[in-house]
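quick one, 471 residues, struct below
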Amino acid sequence: MKARSRLVKLNVAIVLTLAATLLSGAAPTGVATRPNIVFILVDDAAAITLQHMPQTQALIADRGATLTQFVYNQPLCCPSRATMLRGQYSQNTGIVSNDAPDGGYSGFYRKGHESSTLATWFDAAGYTTGYLGKYLNGYPGKAGAPNTHVPAGYDHWFADVGSSAEQFDYIVNDDGVTRHYGTAPTDYATDVLAAEAEDFIQHAPAPFLLTVAPNAPHWPATPAPRHEGMFGDMQYPRTASFNEEDVTDKPSVIPDRPLKIAQIAEIDAEFRLRLESLQAVDEMVRGIVDTLDARNLLADTYLLLASDNGYFQGEHRLRAGKNLPYEEALTVPLYIRGPGIPVGSTVQSLVGNVDVPVTLSDAADITPPNFVDGRSFLPLVQGSSIPWRQSYLLGAGGDAGFAGIRTDRYTYVEYFSGEGEFYDRRVDPSQLDNTYPTMDSTLKATLHDRLLALKDCSGSECRSIEAQAVP
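---
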């Protein structure tokens, strides 16, 4: 009954919209005057896993742009997601961990951040807004909010209660009504989200903003039954940094013993599960594209796919995890297609997760609040050459345990322990040789001062500091 009621309401809204168009004298074309936006946000997907999503590659990356240097301010679930909701570095959201008191949904809720997010900006501008899937860690109970709580700005809300990352036997808040999904094949969470996304796209009045956030490939990375065993005995790639041989130059957070044979076997098995769990997301992409096309909205829709952070699986002896300043956690390509974006293009500029809500607002001709730290990369993906940032802030609070700067060439990090790391990625792309103790003193002073400035910045001040050249 709930689904039927929602369809009726959305269909009534479409009829009213068309009637208003006819009365105004304009010809209804089935195309929104402002672009629609569909943002697919996967969970803990390393760059190497996205390469095994053929439909995503064909329908988004090959039909639009790939941002090869998409960097996370803090590569951890809740801080990153909060940044992508408000366009602020984690030092300014105050969400620097996955749990209270310095983060999680509890921190986001108690700080009143839900009063101004991407959703409220778009809702106020007349967009139909929807959110499906994982929201913020600990939503909603750890904040003391009821399971029926719907954040401000959303016309349709279908979110995982408890952020369990389970694909079966879970609870969702469906527009203020809690629903339990069991263990039948039809209850598989990614497939349920895919159906919800197609339903929304079919019936929501345009223009709309839809975020779809599946749990895949977050552990336990349960694949749909139809995809079990799909990747056979595939091994995780043995890159130069995998089970790094010599870590005597690394900070104390890196294990002092190499991975054991059993641990490597676990990594291989987990890798296969992660790839298998992403295949349903890959099918979701196809369903979304087909549904947009059937409604004659594909040409006027921005479609993005990104992860909330990267993930370690053996690199630098790290069995698992993400919240450290190495490329495997810091960078995962973002794919985007849409109006004005050249097909099959690549953007190599230093773009970050802090830029996502500002860019989407720019695409919709919405002015975000002055508190945002990010900038719009829309001109970059549309092929324009514009002044751009020269450095990007890393970490700077809470669980990170470090603060640093990433440029097109360098990674510079200061740990709260007093240790440091420096890599010239042009000569050491795998970050094997930490030259912090011997790096050029002038460059060290420059990067240290830049880091101090960025750690205290907010809003336009951040953008001004980032624009300064690095020697």
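The chain has 14 helices and 16 strands.
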